[in-house]
Amino acid sequence: MRQKLINSNTLSRMKKPVPKLAHRPLDRGLFLCYDTLIHTNLPMNYKATVQLSYTSTSDGATDCDDILPAENIKMEVPAEDLNIHQYFYLFNRFLRAVGFCDYNIMKGGVQLAFNDMRDQKEMKRVADEYGLILEEDYSKQLQEEVGLAKKFDEDWALVGKTFEENEELQSKILDLKAKLSRYENPNNPNYTEEEMNAICAEALKS
Q1: pTM, entire model
Q2: Which residues constitute the domain of residue 74?
Q3: Cβ-Cβ contacts under 8 Å for 98 (sequence gap 6 or more)
Q4: Fewest Cβ atoms closer than 10 Å to its Cβ: which of 42, 72, 74, 200?
Q5: Residue 78 placed within a domain
């Protein structure tokens, strides 16, 4: 069997050319996603601090025992993990350091939480969480309590009236039983049992 010889030029013409890959710019969103993925496991290096500072100087009367020529108060705490309660506790201590009393600090906190500039729903939410009653809610609650008290008085009066009617009816029944027992025993020299019940009931009424 004869084999057909193919020279190198013919072989090169038979090979299909390999297409070149087009260089397209990477999509921005895809790049950001890729950048996020490759940097996810990198350690966070985050530090933060909060500083509260108070500085005062005196123009004169430095010889007075109650006046200092200068005063510097500075509080600094790490703030990476401070929550809202710790922030307010820090500010509370700072206000004490600069001379405010607990009463005025609490008044300031209440004024901050409850004022006309706050959202009504948020104020009610905080009030409910701490067992407080807003003024407008208190008036509604007071009206409800007054209405309940009035309803209770009306019901109690009805119960009293019903009790008096029942007592009067019971007295009439005992009296009729006493008369019936005397009619059935006209020659009995002693009080019958029914007559004694009627007499005791009248005595209790008086």
Answers
A1: 0.48
A2: 49-113
A3: 54, 73
A4: 42
A5: yes
